[in-house]
Each structure stands twice: as structure tokens, then as C-alpha cells.
């Protein structure tokens, strides 16, 4: 092989940015009492059977993946009768050791708010009791120094100002319009401090314009990948834990220098959640 045939390959490799992983601390909740007995999003159908032991086994794979990546994984005890408690992302939003508590929209999940706030208090976080309805990191995503905040289905837009005051960070309001993508973390994936992936059709026109302006180089995922909650993923800046079935997203991430890691959480998809829903970042 002549040197000339090698050079173009090298040049292509150099065009892929170097991604840096940073160690994360996350909170998770084992789906010991997971089942679907009510319907608060279009994914949930109480008539379909669920397999709690399979949910636990799949969740364990996610837990093991995080441990393998060097994360500090903390656990909150699951509570019998709160089947959605596995979706820890909704338990609050934690930044600078302050834990802004959740205040759930639906009565079925409301007891989770105090349960998570109790854990934050017991673990040395400064708990900020919410006045406004909000579902934590399900609707609040930190990208660098900006918080992207969803509304339309769950979190009240008044919670955006409440969080902005507590966090001392600008909050960008984004309106969700498709009931299947009812939390912001089902329509946006944070890849690192400056990059995101998202599903354009999940947003109203003004919100889409904001995303296009702020993130011109964003990964635009396919409807197919979004439809299995492929965006509901968690990145440490290099490793991106995603739904195993999100094959286009996997390729898109690899092409941009990330390391996608597929995990199968099909059982938890029956409750309308995926990787990110099961993960709450703790920022001391
Ligand atoms: N069944 C739960 C609900 O509808 C799923 C929550 C998913 N969580 C998330 N962060 N998107 O509230």
C-alpha cells in the first residue's frame, strides 16, 4: 500500500473530535415493585402483562454498566405501591449540592416527591421544596451552564423560573407537543457540555427554532429510534448508554467520536421509560 492511500483515512479520523469522559455520580432505584397498573402516558397499558423479575434483571444490566464505567451509583429504597419509582430521573434536579424536589402532576406518583426529598436530606443535600409542579430531571437537562426545561405535559412552566432562581443558571423553556414524548428527556439527549441530540417533531415551532439556533450541529435522530425512546440515554461525555435497539443513533454517535453502549430495557419501556429515566445525576 502506498502512503497516498493511507493519508485520506488519517485525515478523516482527525476530523472526529476527541470526547472526554468525566466521572458521574447517579441515583437509581431498583424496580422491585415495578408493574403497570395505571396509565399516565401513552406507553402504559395496564391490560398488558409485566414481568417484574425481568425488569429487575434488565435494570441490573444498566446498573452494572454504570459501575463498569466507573460511576458512583447510589441507591434509594423502592417503595411497595410506587411502581414508577424506578424512574429516578423524576425524583428531583440536583446541582451544586442543592436538590430541587419534584412535585408530580399525577396523583399516582405524588408520594415519590417526599420519598426522594427524604433521601436527598439524609444524604447531605440541601433540599429545596418545590412550590411549582415539576418532574425533576425528566424535564430539566443541564447542558454546560444552561438548563433546558420541558413543559406541555408534566412540568409547569412556572417551575422553570423557580429552578432558575435556585440553580442560578439560565433556563430555556421548550414546549413538547407529542404525548408520546411527554418528558424532555424522551426528546433530547445531552451528549456533553455543548452537544445534544433531539427529535424535532416533538417540539412546537418556537422551541424548535431555539434548538436549531443554539445547537446547529445537534444529532437529529430518526423517528424510528425516538419511537423506542432511543433519546432517553445517559452520557458521561464519551460513553453514551442508549437503548440497544436504537441502531441509527448508535451509528450517529460513533461517527461523532462517542462510544455508544446499548442496553435493553424493554420491560421498563412498558412504563414509558428508558435509560435516562432510570438515572438521576447527583451534582455535589
Ligand atoms: N410511567 C412514568 C410516568 O409516566 C414514566 C416516567 C419516565 N421518566 C422519564 N424521565 N421520562 O411518569
- Name of the CATH class: Alpha Beta
Low-confidence stretches: 1-5
CATH fold-level label: L-arginine/glycine Amidinotransferase, Chain A
Q: Determine the oligomeric state from the structure.
A: single chain
User: Helical region count?
Assistant: 8
Query: How many structural domains does the protein architecture include?
Result: 1
Quick one: overall form? Answer: globular
The residue-averaged pLDDT reads 95
What is the structural class? Answer: alpha/beta
* CATH homologous superfamily annotation: L-arginine/glycine Amidinotransferase, Chain A
Provide the gyration radius in Å. Answer: 19 Å
List of distinct ligands in this structure: arginine
Question: Could you explain how this protein is built, in words?
Answer:
The chain is an alpha/beta fold. The protein has a single domain, classed as L-arginine/glycine Amidinotransferase, Chain A (5-stranded Propeller), CATH 3.75.10. Helices cover 27% and strands 20% of the residues. It contains eight helices and 15 strands. The chain has helices at 3-15, 52-68, 112-122, 158-167, 205-214, 223-226, 247-255, 266-269, and strands at residues 25-28, 72-75, 92-95, 98-101, 126-128, 140-143, 146-151, 171-175, 188-190, 196-198, 219-220, 234-235, 239-243, 259-263, 280-281. Strand 7, helix 4 and strand 8 form a beta-alpha-beta unit. Arginine (ARG) binds next to loops.
Amino acid at each position: 500500500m502506498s502512503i497516498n492511500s493511507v493519508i485520506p483515512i488519517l485525515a478523516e479520523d482527525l476530523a472526529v473530535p476527541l470526547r472526554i469522559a468525566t466521572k458521574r455520580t447517579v441515583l437509581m432505584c431498583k424496580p422491585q415493585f415495578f408493574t403497570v397498573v395505571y396509565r399516565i402516558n401513552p406507553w402504559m397499558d395496564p391490560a398488558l402483562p409485566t414481568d417484574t423479575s425481568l425488569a429487575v434483571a434488565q435494570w441490573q444490566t444498566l446498573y452494572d454498566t454504570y459501575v463498569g464505567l466507573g460511576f458512583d451509583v447510589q441507591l434509594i429504597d423502592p417503595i411497595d405501591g410506587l411502581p414508577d419509582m424506578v424512574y429516578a430521573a423524576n425524583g428531583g434536579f440536583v446541582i451544586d449540592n442543592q436538590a430541587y424536589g419534584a412535585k408530580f402532576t399525577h396523583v399516582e406518583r405524588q408520594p415519590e416527591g417526599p420519598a426522594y426529598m427524604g433521601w436527598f436530606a439524609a444524604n447531605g443535600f440541601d433540599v429545596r421544596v418545590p412550590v411549582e409542579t415539576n418532574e425533576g430531571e425528566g424535564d430539566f437537562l443541564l447542558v454546560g451552564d444552561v438548563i433546558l426545561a420541558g413543559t406541555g405535559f408534566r412540568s409547569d412552566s412556572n417551575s422553570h423560573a423557580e429552578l432558575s432562581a435556585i440553580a442560578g443558571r439560565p433556563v430555556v423553556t421548550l414546549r413538547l407537543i407529542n404525548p408520546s414524548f411527554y418528558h424532555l428527556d424522551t426528546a433530547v439527549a445531552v451528549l456533553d457540555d455543548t452537544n445534544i441530540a433531539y427529535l424535532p417533531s416533538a417540539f412546537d415551532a418556537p422551541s424548535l427554532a431555539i434548538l436549531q439556533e443554539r445547537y446547529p450541529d445537534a444529532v437529529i435522530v430518526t423517528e424510528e429510534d425516538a419511537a423506542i425512546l432511543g433519546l432517553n440515554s445517559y452520557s458521561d461525555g464519551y460513553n453514551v448508554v442508549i437503548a440497544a435497539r436504537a441502531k441509527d443513533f448508535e451509528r450517529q454517535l460513533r461517527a461523532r467520536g462517542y462510544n455508544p453502549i446499548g442496553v435493553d430495557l424493554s420491560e421498563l419501556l412498558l412504563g414509558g421509560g428508558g435509560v435516562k429515566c432510570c438515572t438521576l445525576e447527583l451534582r455535589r
